[in-house]
Amino acid sequence: MSPHEPRRARNGFTLVELLVVIAIIGVLIALLLPAVQQAREAARRMQCSNNLKQLGLSLHNYHDTFGSFPSGYIDISDRADVEDNKGHWSWAALILPFLEMGNVHDILDVGPTSPSVAMDTYQEIMQARYDAFRCPSDTGPDFSSTTECAGCCIENSGSTNLGHSLSNYLGINSSALIRAHQATNFGNGTTGATGMFYRDSDTRMRDITDGTSNTAMVGERCYRIGTTDYLAGELFAARDYDGGGPAHRDRGGMADQGACRILLTTYFSPNKIWQHADSYPKMDESGLSSQHPGGVQICMADGSVRFLPETTASNISGETDTIMDYLGNMADGNVIGEY
């Protein structure tokens, strides 16, 4: 290059231009991030819906095989190996063979062996995570915690309290508080369970006189929303109370244990925080809840899955007179309509 030839200018960003480019990129990321998060939640919600559909199909296959839907839980309180704080098998444990988990069902010897005895030998299996029973949006642990909820756990045969696998999908028990026996008056949930699942229940298709498309069968319960604990539910078993079976509304000890850990009520709207004024301070944990924005998903008795907005009308009167009541009642004779 000649010493008299002018030096060529170097191409590049000035500091101001570089800062502008970085700012534009930051704005684009800020605009796109919510869309990405929404897309991920949509995918998680779709997977959750598929989980519920599979549960619905499994429950129907169980009905086709045995002539009725599984019991809400098997009351084995009359057995010598069952006493206070031990376990009673849940409806979910009974349908494992219809979810391609027959090996888990057989290893645990569901039915003949009590959950507490099964915990002695197969604690790892009893505390594993089973994705078929977990909503992908939920951030809870794999199994119940003895520190956060001792009553959610069960004792093994050596009386050591141990957590067991959590589930985000629970059977619908009632349109009022959780009860062990079937209602004597389906127009009033305070007379007993108005839903499909309760103690030693054997609900058949013909019992669902409201129609399978009008009756909720399984619903969601999340582990936590913000600072509010719902603690999900237990997959395998409900804890015994004082040797008389799992606690429920018509007997004491319902603080955080018993049938409310495997069954749901439609007593109040989804994600609603409400506590009963008497000796049942944890009833707000017994309803429907989820991490999905705006509501929860439910599986109807016909196997279809619907999204239930958290604005769905409910009350706490006990009378069957709201959409939430109608959904949790299989024989009230009411028309649900839109929600």
TrEMBL record:
Pfam families: N_methyl (PF07963), SBP_bac_10 (PF07596). Signal peptide: none annotated. Coiled coil: none annotated. The chain crosses the membrane at residues 12-36. This is DUF1559 domain-containing protein. InterPro entries: DUF1559, N_methyl_site, Pilin-like, Pre_pil_HX9DG_C. PANTHER family: GENERAL SECRETION PATHWAY PROTEIN G, TYPE II SECRETION SYSTEM PROTEIN H. Residues 37-313 form the DUF1559 domain. The keyword Membrane applies. Keywords: Membrane, Transmembrane, Transmembrane helix.
